[in-house]
Design goal:
Chain lengths: 170, 170
DNA sequence: TATTTTGTTCAATCTTGACTGAACGAACTG
DNA sequence: CAGTTCGTTCAGTCAAGATTGAACAAAATA
């Protein structure tokens, strides 16, 4: 590695996704994986992922599971192959938004619940607590509508047969 | 501190806000401060904040500045007082949402920018990159509408003269 | 002017979570 | 069955950020 090296555009993209997801509280490797899958779709084998991104098998295991739980990628079995394969899911982003929504709802509920046990709080205090809870309600509503937009393909290309039929990564 | 001690409801609320904001990527102390201000409005003096939350003056300085930048609280000067005072802002949550919006836009732009330099990416790849960028666009739009809801006081009490006229913390 | 108060800054410490790599069991292969 | 491949788990390491507390400068006080 020379010191003035500039990596290629694909690496930039993948690393960029790593940083974006990291700034959103996710592991950087999850972002890199996501970047790779967005670029190439897949399927990629378990080992292939570790090699391409130069990460440990442990990280592949942990982060593919994370992305699988989020519905970003899906695990596929391939004829004659012992390894697990992964490819970008048909609807990769819905569950991410749904999780955000649930977290806002949880916060709102937590605040209201705590507020009930509160005493010695004047009417102004109650009002401020209510506005705080409402703030998280607004966030929940916003993510809910984002979910709708995502499903309607708002601004995006219309929903087509997203699952690749070809096996080879592009 | 006895081992089976249960703190009072106010402390629960404040600590709860600490955890909620921490889960959103902010310092826990910022959340605690926010909880205190929501409960009592303020104004609180700099020293008072350090005492009530049992945190260092350094943390008070850092986190009040953070919340001030976010527009959650505002610094106020009090007649005959040398210390800085802080109180909950009139519209505490707008800037938080606006920052979320900007971050989504930035991500979208970053993706599109990186995508431009990409080559050797088939039409499917381009489509997936576009859908990814669109995803962040949807998030940006959602937060934008959340901002509107917040301004309209959607679901919340109508906008009134939020700034306390009384000096004493409730 | 000397002292005190006040808020900021910064080096040091602490905490949290990500990441690695080795150990492990399961499943496959020969 | 012995050896290999595969994915998961977990203890250990590492990095990033939060928090503290002392040092500092500015402003007020006496």
């Amino acid at each position: 590695m020379s010191s003035d090296m500039t990596q290629d555009a694909e690496t930039d993209f993948i690393e960029g996704m790593g940083l974006i997801l990291q700034s959103d509280g996710m592991p950087r490797i999850a972002g890199r994986l996501m970047g790779l899958f967005v670029l190439h779709g897949g399927p990629f084998s378990f080992t292939d992922l570790a090699d391409r991104l130069a990460i440990s098998r442990g990280s592949v295991s942990t982060n593919t599971r994370l992305l699988e739980d989020l519905g970003v990628i899906e695990r596929v079995a391939m004829k004659g192959e012992r390894q697990d394969f992964f490819r970008l899911a048909a609807d990769p982003y819905a569950e991410i938004v749904e999780r955000k929504r649930v977290r806002s709802i949880r916060a709102q509920e937590s605040i209201r619940r705590n507020a009930e046990t509160l005493d010695n709080i004047g009417p102004n205090g109650l009002k401020r607590v209510d506005e705080l809870a409402n703030f998280f309600g607004v966030l929940a509503t916003a993510t809910e509508r984002a979910l709708d937009d995502l499903r309607d393909g708002d601004g995006a290309l219309p929903r087509t047969n997203r699952a690749d039929t070809s096996m080879a990564a592009e």
